[in-house]
Design brief:
The structure is a single chain. By secondary structure, this protein is an all-alpha fold. Helices cover 87% and strands 0% of the residues. It is built from 7 helices and no strands. The chain has helices at 3-35, 39-47, 52-70, 74-109, 113-141, 146-178, 185-217. Helix 1 (3-35) runs antiparallel to helix 3 (52-70) and helix 2 (39-47) packs antiparallel against helix 4 (74-109). It starts with a helix and ends with a helix.
Amino acid sequence: MLPGYQEARLAVRADVLNVLEGLATANKEGLEALQAIDAVKLEEARSRLKDISQETEKIDNDIVLIFAKYTPEARDLRELVSYLKITSALNRIRTNINSYLKNMQSMLMEKNDKMTQLIQDSLSINRCTLNAFDYTIEMLQTFDDNDQVKALAARIDVEYSKTDDIYTLLEKDVIQQIGNADGLAEEYFNLLKHIRKNLKIIDRLESVSQRVIFARMGGKL
């Protein structure tokens, strides 16, 4: 394949990696703001998301130009098609992070101690998600190492499984709290809804990891 094509393909991978790192940073800063119970810093974390859609649109356009200019062979075509699928997942992650952080801002402003404690208890999910971000980023950084890519995907699966367990325990705790909610039952149910939105972030990362495996080794997309 032409050197210009190889440069273009690697540039697309680098751009995908850059978007992932930006999302990971926003998610990390959101976690730190929640730990500090700081609604202002949550807004600052959300501000990091504003350019993500434009960045993923540029990646998609660059891929289309590569298709038109170089007509990639089957293996390279597989990788580029995977990146098109990945940018779609990254946009959904952006939406989920933004929605989650916005809703957490509203929750913190209510200054309900019990609600705030439940939010703190739920942050184990966010920590699992941060780990999954790190592993997904490393998958792209070590793209040419099949064994490493598969090992990192397995670690993402472990973090994903942990979040299901954490949510199940949290849901039981919230249901118990509702009995003494003093008219705040709706707020507790809303909290669970927002946390489920947060769970979708790691779900999308797991999807990204499977698409990286497809890009590298084939299989089902």
